Every structure is written in structure tokens, then in C-alpha cells.
Amino acid sequence: TVRDALEEAGVTLAEGDEVSPSLDTEITGEGLTVTVERVKSIVVAVDGENIEVAMVAGTVQDALDKAGVTLAEGDEVSPSLDSEIGDGDVTITVERMKHVVVAVDGENIDVAMVNGTVQDALDSAGVTLKDGDKVDVDTAAPLEDGMLITVTRYV
Predict the structure, then answer these.
(1) Which uninterrupted H or E stretch holds 44?
(2) How far apart (Å, rounded) are the C-alpha atoms in residues 29 and 40?
(3) Is the pLDDT of residue 50 over 90?
(4) Hey, how many other C-beta atoms are within 10 angstroms of the C-beta on 21?
(5) 150 in helix, strand or coil?
């Protein structure tokens, strides 16, 4: 059988490896090609959580689907969604779009950014802090989705 031939050749299979033809296929002569596709360990890093999945082949999008990760508009993925999963261990990073509101000078300014700090959001909103102005959140703090950043002007 294919199983016997692989054992005789010293090929050790890991759980999840795919063999074609199947391990129970009888070998009845010469010329049979046996293909072993090795399972790959994939880590999907999203929202501070690592989700581990195992796949033999496919794309980054396939791995996200298997991990149950749904993307929203503006989310960034590395490597790109259509990239083939390579050999060895693979890490896929998903960075979520964060929507924050900057309240300043009587108006609310919506800001959307993938990464950054409160200061980056203020810069994106066109807010320049002057001496004595106060921000209710540390300007070095990382952005969180839904964050409200309030600037109180010094008069």
C-alpha cells in the first residue's frame, strides 16, 4: 500500500498532512506517483489575540475564513489576501480600523485610522494644541475603536 511504501521510504506523516493517492491504495506496479502535502501552522494575529489554524494549502483569505476572522472596510492585512500560504510557519497580521471622535471647539470630528496614538488622531483632525489646552486622554495612548477624545481649550 501507499502507507507501506511511505514507511519503507522513511517518510513520517504529521496529523493533517494530505497524501494522494490515499494511504490504503494498493500499489500494483511501477509508475505510481505519491504526493505528500505537509500541514502548515498558521497564526492569525488580530485584536491582540493569536488564532492558530492548520492548513495544507490556500491563500491568506482561506486562512482568515478558517480562523473565523471577518474583515471590515479599512482593515489592513499582511500578507495580502490573495497571497498563497507558503512553506513553514506563517503569521498573518490583521490591523483593525479604529473610529474615534475628537471633540474640540464645539464640534465632533470623526477620525478613522488603523494605527496610531491620540496625538496622531489630533493631527489627523487638524487640531493644534496650544499652551494650557487639556486633552482628557494621554496623547501617547494608543487609539481604541469608539474612543472619544475631548480637548478643552485654555482661555
Answers:
(1) strand 40-46
(2) 32
(3) yes
(4) 14
(5) strand
Mean per-residue pLDDT, 82-94: 85
- Average pLDDT in the chain: 92
Q: Which three cell numbers stand for residue 65?
A: 475564513
Give the up-direction half-sphere exposure of residue 101: CA atoms within 13 A in the CB hemisphere: 7
Query: What is the Rg, in whole angstroms, of the alpha carbon atoms belonging to the chain?
Result: 26
Report the pLDDT value the prediction gives residue 89, as an integer from 0 to 100.
65
Q: Cis (ω within 30 of 0) for the bond into 142?
A: no
Give the DSSP H/E element, type plus range, for residue 78.
Answer: strand 76-78
CA distance 74 to 96: 7
What is the amino acid identity at position 58? G
Residue 151 has pLDDT above 70, yes or no: yes
